[in-house]
Amino acid sequence: MIPSKEEMYAALEERHGKELQKLFSETAVVICGLGGLGSNVAISLARAGLGRIHLIDFDRVDISNLNRQQYFPEQLGQYKADALKDTLLKIAPYCDITSQSVKLDEENIPVLLADFPIVCECFDNAEQKAMLVNSVLENFPDKKLVAASGMAGLGSANNIVTKRIARNFWLCGDGKSDVNEGLGLISARVAVCAAHQATMVLRIISGKDEA
């Protein structure tokens, strides 16, 4: 039996404290890209009891995603935005989970991201990453932006860090490991970077926005 909303939020308050949980519950975050980074970030934030999580990705679940992304074999072929929404609602049934299967670009970013105070950049492609970061910084200088770069291979997880790049911009990763160098994307290391991103989002919400 699914617990009531009151029961679930009482349990969250017991773990996080009433004041902090209230901040989490009143916050909206948009996650751009729902692969190894985005799907893991989304699950961490849903478990924290965020008020609203908006999911954006144009891609479908492929068998090559299953080694590191939070999808199931029965979801193959589904749009990632739809599949991940279903999973998150099983984890956090009272969270406001919304989703769009659309490819972000310089033209639609000012419209699609306008309502969210915190943006998580979770793309795989370096050019898409740069496009999103530059668009957000240009169009929304007051939004909080948490991005990632460098989580490929089997280098030490201790090399993955969070750095504050600008007033409202944080970057997670080792800053150098890249799949173009022949390094694979391994579930554990990608998840470490995603955990850095999710932690930074929660720190921003709590007012502890130093890296």
Number of domains: 1
CATH evolutionary superfamily: NAD(P)-binding Rossmann-like Domain
Supply the CATH class: Alpha Beta
Q: Could you tell me how far the N terminus lies from the C terminus, measured between alpha carbons in angstroms?
A: 40 Å
How much beta, percentage-wise?
15-25%
Spans with pLDDT under 50 lasting ≥5 residues? none
**Helix proportion:** 25-40%
Report the biggest beta sheet as strand number plus sense, adding barrel if it closes.
7 strands, mixed
CATH topology: Rossmann fold
Radius of gyration: 16 Å
The total count of strands amounts to 7
User: Strand sequence of the main sheet, in spatial order?
Assistant: 3-2-1-4-5-7-6
Average pLDDT reading: 96
**Helical segment count:** 7
Second CATH tier, the architecture: 3-Layer(aba) Sandwich
Kindly name the structural category.
Answer: alpha/beta
Shape: globular
How would you spell out the order of helices and strands? HHEHEHEHEHEEEH
What does this protein look like?
It is a single chain. The chain is of the alpha/beta class and 211 residues long. It has one domain (5-206): Rossmann fold. It is built from 7 helices and 7 strands; from the N terminus they run ααβαβαβαβαβββα. Strands 3-2-1-4-5-7-6 form a 7-stranded mixed beta sheet, sandwiched between helices. Strand 6 (161-166) and strand 7 (169-173) form a beta hairpin. Helix 1 packs across helix 2 (18-25) and helix 3 crosses helix 7 (187-206). The longest helix is centred in the last third of the chain and has 20 residues, at 187-206. The chain is globular, with a radius of gyration of 16 Å. The model has no long low-confidence stretch (mean pLDDT 96). Residues 16-210 form the THIF-type NAD/FAD binding fold domain.
